[in-house]
């Protein structure tokens, strides 16, 4: 409990919400993997937890925004050189008719040669609280059209989750786990984790944890807040938490959000 | 200069091929092993495997695959024939198919292309062969590249990938049942020949007790030759048609033997179709074979037997229909309520479900419960809801992008709409539930395309009427003040119906409200670079709100607009309408080519009505009023008049495109008329000072 409060103290105005979130998610803030190296999996919020979490968020969306992330959680656990487990959970609130088209089908790219992906949960919570699970056949794996034609020896895929019932006022919720294993131990896992988005984000949590014997280098760029770094049981855990993150507003001819956002 | 060099290079490649194959023979690697892949996704003993064995068993003679030497000889002949401005030549395309009365079939196809340019090498380095998981399978029998020096590079199995077909992903359709074998050929370069042969067979009839087939004999690259063999039971009649074959390029023969008939269609060299900007879909110009064993009536009735069970509603749908039509007295108002519900409320979700995904609509109960579906699912739901409201209604197939061959009943559809007949009407109306940015229930661009109502009693192919221009009318009004210092201030308003509403609605929808000021600024400054944007408004604030027509208003000013010429001022007229008229821009693009071989496709019949009032500055008068313009042709009508009233120059203009397509024979006159409109749009008026 102490650990939870320490983290929450960075965001005093959010203490109440954070306590609720951590209780709901059961997130072991400073624990890291177990001594035996088993990767902790937090799993998805249950429908009741989801409802409780949504109820805690002020109903004050930014005007003009088609949707907003209520929760965006990504946790990397690097277990060995070239091996990692990534847990992601997203809660997205649909605020406009247009957003139900733009975000009702979620496309998640991955490398089928070196990654496996398991969907932990995928559901739509309607404005009246009804939960509509992902229907049979709505979870598909596709080859992106640009890759199918290019003839390159890559095996990039898209996991497409199509959410039933998505409409203005509904909430899309999904969680997944990727296991990454590169063919050679010397192969480096290299990623850019962008914290900013073209949608506002109410609660964001990014974690990178790894054994202290694994050489991991990371760098914060642009307006990225400093990580909270913890050491425990031979593991290092870097945590970035942000709340009420405004959207990157789009303009004509602007650079990619990857050139603008913090990460 | 660049073009000449490119042509020279292509000729060099051709000459090299001819020289090489004539003088040195064919140093091919005869010992190479064919690249034969496994049938994908098949389990021994499964119904699919049994179906596949049925299909393969139809072939009584083993397939004969061409050798590299055979192909090289044909490539040499093709090289001597071909046009130089193509990226590659189809050396040959052969197709041998056997079918039975149940709808099982087995096909062996072979094709070779001769690469002429780097572009051709890029295009044909990858060959994609599609199949449909519930109904058929494809496997490779052989595939190789013959390099210009005659060496053969055999494709290896690891260069062949079996992937989900994402062709329609851009249209937000994910069809997990559609698969593609992607062949990635190595070392493809100008002068190389790429060859592939594959086997394709039914595992279950897609159309039970019916068979449909087709092939192309002329396309957008030169074809040196094609031969199609089709063998079927001699007591199962076929209906066939070759489109665009007025020059009898494709010949036909048939032989009856041992209870079967072998039909053969073959063609010699076919020049490439040279695509033109703004032309009709090239598929309407290609020379293609269409074969079927049934009529449209039989097609419709057969599909109805499969589809109708999906259209049975439940209590929840009945309740919703009752709720939606409650208090609505007229059939039209009921229709509008139900249409709006399915169009706007039910999300277009890009995954196809159902017993025959990609063909059958998902059961309407599920579409309603999930509040989501693709075109066929939404069309199925609206059909069921209309019936509950007492309307005669049919699930209907359509292809909104092209006008299909109607002579034989071959499935050329890729879209589902709804047919409805209101009480007292004799004609069917067609409704498209995927057009959620169009106020009309059927977009004008669908006019002229074909539809097939799926009816247990059968139906004939029908055509959606061309939407008349008055249903797609835009109105521009501009109130403009010229000041004594030569500056200009103007207020412009636009609204429209049908396609004229849809154009700006889509622009504003896809731009997003945060960028609307940028959009307005772009529209203004691309017409008047020195324009200073003023206030603007766009209604409805959510462009996908179809309850009201769009209303776009904006103001702008331009300092020093009137050019001084001594004691006179020069002012270009008309002002707003010549620059902000989207329709004018469309016609400018359509009329770019000096002549055409194929019809021009404008999209829809449209009218644009403009009225601009230019308030002259005090103390100024017009020395002359521009001449009126009057044009009336079969495809275009235009009227522009000017008059002066109360120190104002008033311009009124009406431009009507009467038909969405202009035949090539009428195009020169059409283009000449439009050029006359353009010339008259660059008129200047002279303002004199009152002495």
Report what the structure shows.
The complex is a heterodimer of chains A (263) and B (691). Chain A contains five helices and eleven strands; from the N terminus they run αααββαββββαβββββ. Chain A has an eight-stranded mixed beta sheet. Chain A is an alpha+beta fold. Helices cover 16% and strands 37% of the residues of chain A. In chain A, α1 packs across α2. Chain B folds into three domains: 2-293, Immunoglobulin-like (Sandwich); 299-465, C8orf32 fold (Roll); 470-689, Jelly Rolls, CATH 2.60.120. In chain B, the strands form eight sheets. Chain B has an eight-stranded mixed beta sheet with strand order 5-4-8-2-1-10-13-12, sandwiched between helices. An eight-stranded mixed beta sheet of chain B has the order 24-25-23-22-29-33-32-31. Chain B has a five-stranded antiparallel beta sheet with strand order 19-18-17-20-21. In chain B, α1 (2-23) packs across α3 (68-81). Chain A binds chain B through residues 64, 96-98, 100-101, 104-105, 132, 135-138, 140-145, 148-151, 158, 160, 162-167, 249-252, and chain B through 125-126, 128, 161, 163-164, 166-167, 169-170, 172, 174, 176, 180, 182, 184, 344-345, 347-351, 353, 357, 366, 369-372, 509, 512-515, 518, 522, 542, 544.
- What is the averaged pLDDT score of chain A? 80
One letter per element, helices H and strands E, the order of chain A comes to HHHEEHEEEEHEEEEE
Helix coverage percent of residues of chain A?
10-25%
Report the sheet with the most strands of chain A, covering strand number, pairing sense and barrel closure.
Answer: 8 strands, mixed
What fraction strand of chain A?
A: 35-45%
Name of the CATH class of the largest domain in chain B: Mainly Beta
CATH fold call of the largest domain in chain B: Immunoglobulin-like
| Unreliable spans of chain B | 1-31
Unreliable stretches of chain A = 1-31
Q: Could you tell me how far the N terminus lies from the C terminus of chain B, measured between alpha carbons in angstroms?
A: 59 Å
What would you report as the Rg of chain B, rounded to the nearest angstrom?
A: 30 Å
Number of separate helices of chain A: 5
Return the structural class of chain B: alpha+beta
């Amino acid at each position: 409990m102490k650990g939870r409060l320490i983290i929450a103290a960075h965001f005093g105005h959010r203490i109440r919400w954070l306590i609720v979130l951590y209780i709901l998610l059961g997130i072991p803030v400073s624990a890291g993997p177990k001594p035996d190296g088993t990767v902790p999996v937090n799993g998805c919020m249950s429908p009741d937890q989801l409802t409780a979490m949504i109820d805690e968020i002020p109903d004050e969306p930014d005007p003009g925004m088609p949707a907003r992330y209520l929760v965006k959680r990504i946790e990397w656990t690097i277990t060995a050189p070239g091996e990692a487990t990534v847990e992601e959970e997203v809660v997205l609130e649909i605020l406009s008719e247009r957003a139900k088209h733009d975000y009702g089908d979620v496309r998640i790219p991955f490398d089928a040669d070196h990654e496996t992906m398991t969907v932990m949960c995928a559901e739509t919570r309607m404005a009246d609280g009804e939960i509509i699970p992902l229907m049979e056949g709505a979870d598909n794996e596709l080859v992106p059209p640009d890759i199918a034609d290019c003839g390159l020896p890559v095996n990039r895929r898209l996991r497409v989750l199509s959410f039933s019932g998505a409409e203005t006022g509904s909430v899309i919720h999904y969680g997944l786990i990727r296991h990454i294993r590169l063919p050679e131990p010397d192969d480096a896992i290299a990623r850019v984790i962008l914290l900013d988005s073209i949608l506002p984000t109410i609660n964001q949590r990014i974690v990178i944890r790894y054994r202290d014997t694994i050489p991991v280098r990371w760098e914060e760029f642009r307006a990225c807040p400093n990580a909270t770094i913890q050491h425990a049981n031979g593991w290092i855990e870097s945590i970035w938490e942000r709340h009420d993150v405004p959207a990157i507003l789009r303009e004509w001819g602007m650079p990619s959000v990857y050139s603008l956002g913090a990460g | 200069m660049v073009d000449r060099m490119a042509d020279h290079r292509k000729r060099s490649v051709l000459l090299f091929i001819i020289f090489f194959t004539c003088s040195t023979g064919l140093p091919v690697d005869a010992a190479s092993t064919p690249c034969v892949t496994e049938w994908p996704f098949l389990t021994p003993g499964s119904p699919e495997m049994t179906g596949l064995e049925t299909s393969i068993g139809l072939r009584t003679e083993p397939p004969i695959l061409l050798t590299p030497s055979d192909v090289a000889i044909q490539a040499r002949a093709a090289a001597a024939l071909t046009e130089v401005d193509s990226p590659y030549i189809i050396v040959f395309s052969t197709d041998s198919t056997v079918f039975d009365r149940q709808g099982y079939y087995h096909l062996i196809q072979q094709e070779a292309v001769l690469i002429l340019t780097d572009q051709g090498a890029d295009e044909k380095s990858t060959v994609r062969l599609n199949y449909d998981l519930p109904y058929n399978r494809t496997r490779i029998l052989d595939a190789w590249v013959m390099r210009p020096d005659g060496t053969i590079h055999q494709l290896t199995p690891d260069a062949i990938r079996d992937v989900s077909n994402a062709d329609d992903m851009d249209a937000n359709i994910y069809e997990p049942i559609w698969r593609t074998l992607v062949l990635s050929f190595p070392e493809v370069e100008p002068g190389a020949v790429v060859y592939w042969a594959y086997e394709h067979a039914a595992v279950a009839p897609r159309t039970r007790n019916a068979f449909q087939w087709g092939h192309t004999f002329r396309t957008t690259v030169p074809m040196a030759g094609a031969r199609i063999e089709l063998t079927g039971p001699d007591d199962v009649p076929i209906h066939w048609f070759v489109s665009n074959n007025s020059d009898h390029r494709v010949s036909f023969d048939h032989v009856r033997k041992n209870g079967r008939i072998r039909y053969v269609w073959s063609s010699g060299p076919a020049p490439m179709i040279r695509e033109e900007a703004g032309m009709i879909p090239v598929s309407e110009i290609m020379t293609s074979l269409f074969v079927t064993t049934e009529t449209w009536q039989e097609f419709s009735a057969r599909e109805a037997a499969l589809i109708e069970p999906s259209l049975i509603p439940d209590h929840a749908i009945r309740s919703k229909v009752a709720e939606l039509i409650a208090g609505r007295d007229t059939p039209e108002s009921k229709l509008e309520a139900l249409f709006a519900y399915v169009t706007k409320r039910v999300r277009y979700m890009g995954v196809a479900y159902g017993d025959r995904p990609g063909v059958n609509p998902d059961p309407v109960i599920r579409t309603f419960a999930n509040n989501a579906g693709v075109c066929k699912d939404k069309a199925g739901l609206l059909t069921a809801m209309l019936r509950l409201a007492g309307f005669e209604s049919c699930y209907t197939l359509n292809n909104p992008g092209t006008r299909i061959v109607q002579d034989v009943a071959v499935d050329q559809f890729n879209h589902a709409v709804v047919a409805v007949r209101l009480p007292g009407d004799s004609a069917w109306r067609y409704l498209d539930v995927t057009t959620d940015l169009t106020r009309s229930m059927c977009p004008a661009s669908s006019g002229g395309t074909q539809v097939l109502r799926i009816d247990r009693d059968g139906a004939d192919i029908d055509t959606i009427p061309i939407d008349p221009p008055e249903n797609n009318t835009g109105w521009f009004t501009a109130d403009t003040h010229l000041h004594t210092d030569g500056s200009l201030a103007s207020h412009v308003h636009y609204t429209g119906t049908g396609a004229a509403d849809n154009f700006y609605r889509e622009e504003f929808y896809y731009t997003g409200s945060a960028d609307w000021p940028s959009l307005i600024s772009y529209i203004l400054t691309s017409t008047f670079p020195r324009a200073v944007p003023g206030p603007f408004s766009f209604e409805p604030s959510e462009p996908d709100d179809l309850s009201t027509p769009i209303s776009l208003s904006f103001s702008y000013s331009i300092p020093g607009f009137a050019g001084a010429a001594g004691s006179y001022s020069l002012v270009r007229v008309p002002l707003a309408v010549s620059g902000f008229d989207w329709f004018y821009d469309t016609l400018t693009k359509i009329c770019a080519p000096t002549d055409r071989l194929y019809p021009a496709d404008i999209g829809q019949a449209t009218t644009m009505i403009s009225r601009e009032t230019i308030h002259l500055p005090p103390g100024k008068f017009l020395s002359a009023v521009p001449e009126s313009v009057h044009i009336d042709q079969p495809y275009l009508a235009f009227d522009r008049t000017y008059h002066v009233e109360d120190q104002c120059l008033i311009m009124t203009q009406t431009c009507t495109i009467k038909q969405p397509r202009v035949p090539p024979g009428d195009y020169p006159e059409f283009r000449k008329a439009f050029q006359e409109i353009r010339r008259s749009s660059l008129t200047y008026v002279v303002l004199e000072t009152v002495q």
